[in-house]
Sequence to fold (233 residues):
Amino acid sequence: MVLSINQPAYLPWLGYFERIARSDVHVVLDHVQFEKNSFTNRNKIRVKEGTTWLTIPVATKGKFGNLEIQNLMFAPPDKWRAKHWTSLKMTYSRAPYFDQFQQAYEAIYMQEWSGFMPFVRAMLMQHLSDLGIKTPLVFSSEMEANGQKSDLVLNICKALAAKSYLSGAQGRGYIDKKAFWDAGISLEYQNYLHPVYKQVWPGFESHLGVLDLLFNHGPDSLKILMTDQTPKS
Fold:
């Protein structure tokens, strides 16, 4: 059984979903500390001039060091949802498949949410459905997940009886290979080669949120996302 783990992210990039698609189970690591200026609450979308950031404002004042992602709340006033949806409509209304997905995403953006994770979880499930990825998800906040960095990853792998761990590229810098070897768990590292595809504006910008691909290519998105991958162990 191949397992992958990643922190939750707002409008994740394509490599995020490639790793989920190649896994038998994916763990959303939502019980760890929120990192400022990470991709947890922001990503870029395509605009005529290039790219622009969409960032969810979260309440962090006086909370760093004791602020797990699962406990994140939106910073008042809660006006970002309407602004983000307006930005997406203005940018992608000309995209070939925007109309196909508009109703589902507008409903998510217009709904009132109790906190960051319920919103991001709903978005992630919608992304996976639209891409056709059926990998089961487990949320670390709903399981016994102890330890830091490599120990945490290994403990999750053991708890879920994984035989292989598919790590992100940065795992090379902190994964304790011997500990995984001793536990009988093989290691593989993602080496994602970002595909180039037609976007709504001339030219190409990579590493955007997944909606850029979905709105532009609809049912072909998963095929494009998984193109020309060369994983290395």
